[in-house]
Each structure stands twice: as structure tokens, then as C-alpha cells.
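Final report, results section. Input specification for complex C-07:
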Amino acid sequence: MSINIPTICLTSIGPLITLSVAGLLLLLIDAFSIKGAKKGYFHQFSLVAIIIGIIQTVFLWNRQGTDFSGMVYVDNYTSFFYMIFLIGTGISIILSVKYLEEYKKNYGEYYALMLFSAVGMMLMTAGSNLVTIFLGLEILSIPIYILAGMFREDVKSNEAALKYLLLGGFSSAFLLFGIAMLYGGTGTFSLAELAKNIQANGMNALTYLGLGLLIVGFGFKISLAPFHMWTPDVYEGAPTSITAFMSVGTKAAAFAAFLRVLMIVFPSVKMEWDMLLWVVAVATMTIGNLTALAQTNIKRMLAYSSIAHAGYILIGVIAGNQLGATGILYYLLAYTLMNLGAFGVIILVSRKKDNYLNIYDYSGLGFQYPALAAVMSVFMFALVGMPPTAGFLGKFYIFSAAVQAGYIWLVIIGVINSLISVYYYLRITVIMYMKPAEADLGPVETTPMVSATLILSALAVLLLGIFPGTIFNLALSSVKIFGS
Amino acid sequence: MNFPILSILILLPMVGVALIMMLNRENQWVIKGTAMAVAVLEFIISLSLWFRFDSNTAAMQFVEKSNWVPSFGISYYVGLDGISLLLVLLTTFITPICILACWEDIQDKVKEFMICLLFLETGMIGVFVSLDLFLFYVFWEIMLIPMYLLIGVWGNPARRIYAAVKFFIFTMVGSLLMLVAILVLYFYNYKVTGVYTFDLLKLYGLNIPFDMQFWMFLAFGLAFAIKVPMFPVHTWLPDAHTEAPTVGSVILAAVLLKMGTYGFLRFNMPLFPDAAWYFVPLFSILAVIGIVYGALVSLVQVDLKRLVAFSSVSHLGFVMLGLFSYTMSGVQGGIIQMINHGLSTGALFLIVGMVYERRHTRMIADFGGLSKVMPIFATIFMIVTLSSIGLPGLNGFVGEFLILLGAFKANPLYAIIAASGVIFAAAYMLWMFQRVMFGKVTNEKNQKLQDLSTREIVVLLPVLLFIVWIGVYPNTFLDKTKASTANFVSFMEKSKATKVAAADVIIKGDQR
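Structure output:
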């Protein structure tokens, strides 16, 4: 009897291994370090791991195929998303440090959990097998359940954690059930095999059910209407740094897997799901934007705005062409930068135990802290989608893809929604620049690292908007796997 | 010859912005001086456009083209023809005047104010010289931000935020739908020609089916009509004008409104000629309504600035009527009237601003008999008022006369009704002038008003020079635009002819 040992190349999942090892080491260091010792080096340690991960990802570029017996993809699509996750996690960690110190919660496990969660995101993107995708989803979610409840003395944080855990559990169950149905219908977990099977035999009752349940499961994570109910409460209650991380990372990871599954397994039955998603996209954008109009808590406002953005991105999925996929990648990168940037400003302004989260606390910021307000304005205009920012080009690519695919009404509804969003993003600049400071704002303290990160993010948002060519080509070569 | 003059014009104000950002905000004089120097330099550079411009050709001149996002067919493509030449010069001419005009007016946040002004100048020039639809859209949107800040931060405290947000949202309504139309056009072009491009000149020749033209004309038209502003979508204008600081109103009136009319001329009509013919009645009627309505509403205004704002609605109605006549004189008149309106209404806003600085009120009832106290001011105000009315010998007459000539050729009825707008204009302007300037000095506070300072005279004199110049010898300017206008008119005639020919074929086919 001979045993086939599959060839495994560990570098294929290099960034995942690096982050996992770094996370484990962090836990050990934290456990064995002397009590009361200064714990400032945790974030530096994590950042080093992330930088190593970025370097590894760069070397993964242009590799093609699968590894681990067809369990994970190694291609540009995964690499592009690895970059988004690593950048997103890195920025979130930088923004966390001071915030956690104010709460006296600067623990090692915080950073370890964040790294683990990032590993989950990557695994979810890389999964070429429904089981791997599910595994990724769980690795991504469980640390965030804990992180959302980090501030255990705070009722809202508890509420956020519990709500996210319960609804996250539901969504996992839906996804798992969908996977089971697909397995029942086709007898395989592998995306490639599934695609072949569906191409050859068409859909049957089980695969339909499976597709529907997958959409529900992913819909929860992406927070598409009507599965978005958890988002505002969780985003509001969770520590701001975690909200930032979650709004960007989880969404990008879920979109990465969702897009891959739809584009690889179900392209032949696009007629079956595009109308469904059409309705979902319209509902998501409209509910997100209309509700955001009425918010006065800035975290809640950005929570609803993130729902709306999920709707815009879904337009790219519905377009279902290469341009749409490229647009999604571009948009998610842009969204990572602008949303994290906005949350970074919120963390700075909110200060001592989130005292300043009302939007009117920003009045007078414009001329008291010109740089901070300018940076915030860049992020707000980018979220609106004004040129010349990355936010505009992201929307532009996605809308063009939809026009190309013939969904003109969807695009018109999309632009009307952007118009609605103008009002509440613009309100922040109105308050910052045009309203006199009602109460003394007091000192807004920052660290050089945070300032540098915010300024670099704002510059990146502008530069991506003015010179989009390079990133667009990278994204384009990432979605070559989907055919035309 | 390959000197990238248009790029320099676009970038120079941004260099100024960068310079001012580095200056200390305490040094107000240095900041103002830098802004002024940049604006004057910009004007001098733009003058060379005037002298090197070849008025015998309708082709684009000073063209620069380089790839921007090649995979998407987006290029940095700028150029100038007779139509945009005058508007670019108007922009570079008005900006230094504005900076000088707000020299003492703006004391608060001078640094940010100057940054906004120069940023705005970049956006405005960019809009007028872009020949790539994507580039155009970018500039079109960019210039919203500084204008929005100008109104919202330095405007009249009571309602500036309302006006600023209204301005922003109205403009966005139109421009977002225009974006959709741009994308539809782009992919239609790809379907027909197999090339991805936003190049405006390549898109001109497309034979778009009429039902597509219909919707795209409306989408583009809404964006531009809001900016003009045409009758039912004009409501943002009185608010924005009234609440904006003086300089904001001047730029808004002189340049920003022209983007709408320019957009019709450059994009709407040549891109969708069949729809452009089809919509002549609708837009002409709206223009005529605008003329009469704007004039009638001006009659009853009690606020000087609001009066001037509503008179803009009326004047811009003339421009639209001229453009939609598709005749040589109508379009020529429309273009020259754009410049005229920029000069006279700009000057009127400056004058109202000067009075406001002295008395901190804009109510007509608060004044009376100012001509005795401020003789120089009275003279200048009189000339500008007469120019706005359209007195022969001054610029307004030339524009309105040509427009009415063209409009009469196209449809006498519109021209006859529109001509009543001229009479109303005389009524509301002269009545306003009489109430403000003549009679006895009824209000004690008006007794000791200072006449214009040297700076203020310097601000107004260049405007007066052009008001008289255009009025006496308009050919200097009309010659520059002639070739482009002739090209435009013959293009529109040709498209009508082919449409008629096509209809003939169908009818004859039926008979057979």
C-alpha cells in the first residue's frame, strides 16, 4: 500500500502562518511577562508581523492555482485581499493603542485576537472549498465576538457582543446549512467541482435551497438588508477601534468569499440570483442611507453608512462582469482607507471614555484643529464619492460595470442614494466648519504614529483618486480568474 | 509651440494654494498678496491665449492630450476653441478683481478664504477646457467644494448653511444623473465603434438612436439647467446669491452660472443633436418664462442682492433662448451675453457689496439720495445699471439684440415675449436705482458715507472698460468666437437636414 503525500507549499499560506504564530507568541509573552510591566510593545510586535505578512503577500503575487489538495486558492485575487486585510488590520492596531490605554485595557490578547481574526479573513478569501470558507468565517468571527465585548463594564459593549454572537451564530448556521444542501445536491464541497456539476446537471431543489441559504449567511456578515438589524447596535456598542476593524475587514472578507462563490459556482444560473440581489441591493442602499440621515451619534451614522456602502458594492456583484469584480476590489480598498480614516478621527475626538460621539461635538473643529478637520473632510467627501478621491473612482467603476451589464435603473437608484448620502456626510463638514464651537472642545491629543497614519490614509485616498491606473490594473489582473 | 499653457493655467492656482498653506495665518497681508500675485500672473498668462488664438479655425487649439487611465479610455485632454476662450479669460479676469474686492471685507479666516478662491479658479478653468468627459466631470464636481465652503463659512450668518447645503445638493442632483448618462454614452460608443473612450470630439459623431438621445439629453440637460439656472430649478440661486459673501456672489454670477450655458453648447447640443432639435420648444418656453418671471420677481424685491440675483434668472433666460435658436446671431449673442452678464452682474454684486460694507444692510428702503453723498459711486453704479438694462453703446445691448435677432428668425413669438423682458429690466433696474440713489437723503446714517476708495475704483474700472468696449466695438470679441459658432450652427443645421432626409425616405418608402 502506498500513501500519497500531497505536496504542500507552506509559503502558499505564508501570511496566515505568520499572523497565527505571531498571535500565539503574543499570548505566551503576555502570560509570562512580569505583572505590572509596561506593555507598550504588543502593538509593535503585531505590526512587525503584519509587515512580514505584507512582504510575503508581495512574493505571492502572480502565483496561480490551488494548494493543500485543492483546499485553498493561491492567486492574485487572494493576494489583493490579503493586502486589504493586512493594511486594514495594521491601521486598526495603530488606532487602537491610545484608545485602549485610556480604558486601561491595553492587553496582549486584544492584539492576538485581532491577528487571529485577520487570519480568518484571509482563509475565507483563499478558500477553494466550502469547508475552508466556513472555517475562515468562524476564525474571523469568534475573535470579534470577544473583542466586541472587551469593555465588560460597559453595558453597551456587552449588548454588542451578545447581539453579534447570537446573530453571528444564526448566520453561521444558515451558511452551514446552505453548504450541506449544496453537498447534498452535488456531492462535493469543492468550488470547482460544484461549478462543473451545476454546469452539467443544472440546478435542482437542493442546490437552489443551498444558494438561497448561502446568500442569507453571507448577507448577515455583509449586513445586507434585511439582515442588517444587528449592525447599528453592534457598531455603536463595540469599542470604536473594533468597530473600525469590523466594518472594514469582515465586510471585505465576506464579499471576497461571496463574490468568488457566485462567480465561480453559479455564473451559469445568474438569471436566478441577479433579480433577488437587485432587490436586496436597492433595499440595502435605501435603508442604510435613509436611516443614516436621522442619526446624531457618529458611530451609528457610520454604521448605517456602512450598510449603504455594502449596497453599492453589491451592485458590482450583480453586474457580474469582470469590470464589476475589479470595481469591487478597488472599492473595498478605497473603503478600507476612508472608513478606517474616519473612525481614526472619531477615536481621536471622542477621547476619554467616548464622551464626544455626538456629531455636534465636532462643531468648531474646522478652525481649532485645521489638519484634523481637513483629514476628516477628505474622508467624508470620499465616502460621498466626490472626485478626485478614491471613493469616487470606486463608485465610478462599479456603476460603469452595472451600466455595461445593462442595469441602468439600478445605477440610477444608486446615484440617487449617493445623493441622499451627501446630506449626512456633508453635515459633518457643515458642523466642523460652519457651526461655532458650542462648548470648549478641549485638547485633542494625538500620537505621531496616529497622525502619520491618518495623513497617509488621506493622501492615499486622494492619490488613488487622481492616479487610479496602477491599482486598477492590479485589481484587473486579480479578477482574471473569473473569465470575462 | 508645445508650451503646455492650459495645464499651467489649471495648475498655477494650485501652486498658489500650496504656497498659502505654508504661510503663517497671522500675516494676512502676505497671504492676500500671494493670492493676488498668483491671480494676476494667471491672468497675464491667460492673455497670451488671446493673442496666440487663431480665430479662423473652429478646431480645438492649445490641445494637450496624455493618457490618464488608459485601460478605461480616460485621458487628460484639454483644448480651447472660440467658445471656451472667452470664458477662460473671463475667469482669469474676474478672480484677481475678486481678491482685490475682498481685501478689507474678509478679516476672518483669510488663509482658508484665499485657498478656496484659488482652488475654485482651478476648477472653473478645468471645466472650460476639458475635452474628456471624465475629466470634465471631475472638475465639475471639484469646484462644488470650494464654492460650498465660501457660502457656508463666510456667508451671511443667518441662513448661510441652508443656502450652502441647498446649493450643493441641487447641483449634485443634476450631476449624478449626468454621470449615469455619461456612462451610458461611453458604453454605447464602445458598442458601435469598439473603442473605449471619453474623448468628447470622438463622441460627437455618433449616430445615437433618438430614444437614447431623448433620455441622455434630459439627464445632461437637468445638470446644466440647474446650473444656468433655468426656470423651475432656479430656486437655489436667490438663496446662494443672497447668503454668499460678496466675492462668492460675484464668482457665482460671473463664472459658475456660465458653466450651465456652456455645458449646453459644448455637450448637450452637439452630442444629442436630434433631441436638441426636438426639445427646442420646451427649453425655449422655459427660457422665455425665466426671462419674464425673473424680471417680474425682481420688480418686487426689497433686498438689493436678491433683486440682482433674480435679474440673473432673467438674463440667463436670454442666453438660453439665443443658444436654442441655433442661428448664427442667436448663438453669437448667447456667447457674448454670457460674458456681458458676467461683467455687469459681477459688477452689480461688487457695488452692492460696497454699499453693504458701509451700511451693513441691503434693504432698498434703508437707502435713498446716495448720489449726493457718493458721486463717484453713483456714476459707476449708473453705468453698470444701464449696461445691465441693455442701453445701446454698452455691452448688454449687443448681446440682447443679437439674441432677439436670432430668436426672431427661429420663432418670432418667443422673441416678442422675450423682448418684454428688456422693458421689465429697465423698469426694475431704474426703479431700484432711483430709490437707492436719488431723492433726498432720508436716512440719517447715509449722511456721512464715504465715497469709493482708490482700491474700490481700481476694482471696478477694468470691468467698466470692458462694458464700454463690448458695447462700442463688440467685433473684437465676436471675431474670436465666429469660427466656432459657425461650425456649431452648421453642425446643427446639418443634423436637422439629415433627420429630415431620413424622414423623407421613410415617407417615400411608404408610398412605394
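Chain B has a mean pLDDT of 88. Chain B touches chain A through 33 residues (CB under 8 Å). This concludes the modelling results for the funded period.
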